Amino acid sequence: METEIKTESTEQTTEQIREQITERKSEPIIGQPTALAKIVMGADQYREIVKTIATTTDGGYNKFRVTISPDGINLVKVDNENVMMILVNYKKTAFEMFACQEPVEIGLDNNTLKTFGKMVKKGMIVCIRISTGKTPNEPAYELSCNGNLLNGSCIDVNTLRHNPRKPAVTFESSIRVVSKDFVEAIKSAGDISEEIILLSTPAGLHVEACNGATMFQKLIPVVDWNGTARSLFTSEYLVDIVKAVRDKKEIIDIEMKTGFPVQITLQNENREIVYLLAHRI
User: Fold this and answer.
1) In this structure, are 18 and 128 located in the same domain?
2) Which of 110, 116, 230, 235 has a 20 to 30 A CA-CA distance from 44?
3) pLDDT tens across 64-92, in order?
4) In a domain, 166, yes or no
5) CA proximity to 233, closest of 262, 200, 196
6) Is the four-CA dihedral 155, 161, 163, 166 of positive or negative sign?
């Protein structure tokens, strides 16, 4: 994939960019035959998306499929070791501007998104454009923010593995916790051991980690609880999941079954992120 970074000579303020976006919201894609999609979002949302995808790409497999449709954006990703699956769905209402007439599936490299993310500062606006490219299977992308422009060819989706299907699991326990409590407990446990135990009880969610004579334990109060379950997981994956949590007041849904994967869901009115993490034996 060829990538080129350009810097425009004239910089614009964030407010000027917002004004231009507002003026363009009514512009239809019809009449622009090369345009496939245009998405505008804030810096915090761009970072959330990149960090979320990174939870399954830092192991080396950075390329992934993403579908953009008139309803929004969705993708399914599995890490190299097939240990964790992530399902991401952003509604069109999640963005400051969203324009797409027909569904389009593209291939992207998260390294490119992370590279551009280093140019994105708090309060800035990011614009993503997808248009027809050199071949039907390789559309072109363009990322722009505060005078910085990065563009290139998308990855041919025919060279990427197909999105896996989510396995059917009947869980024994379902609990709801405040994200701040869960994030702090997982980070602390991850500093102690390469393995973390999650135990759901009526008293709350127990997070435990042990390294020799050193033991870490944290009881997280639950907003809602139903059923008891206990499983062991690799701390690296759980730590990666909590790194992507932006809103520390958000409620996290956790579903478990003893000796089975755990499902962790972050959901609000505009987006749903589901992690399915395999247990350790």
Assistant:
1) yes
2) 235
3) 899 999 999 999 888 877 888 999 999 99
4) no
5) 196
6) negative
The letter for the amino acid at 210 is C
Enclosing domain of residue 228: 173-277
The pair of three-digit structure tokens given for residue 119, joined into one six-digit string: 């140019």
SS3 assignment, position 103:
coil
Q: In this structure, is residue 168 part of a structural domain?
A: no
Q: Report in angstroms the alpha-carbon separations of 256 from 21, 68, 162, 243, 259.
A: 43, 31, 27, 21, 9
For residue 211, give the CATH number of its domain.
3.70.10.10
| Token representation of residue 267 | 């959901």
Summarised one tens digit per residue, pLDDT across range 107-148 is: 999 889 999 999 999 999 999 999 987 777 678 999 999 999
Q: What is d(CA 241, CA 222) in angstroms, rounded to the nearest whole number? A: 19
Q: Are 245 and 179 in contact (CB under 8 A)?
A: yes
Helix extents (H) in 99-228:
110-117, 179-192
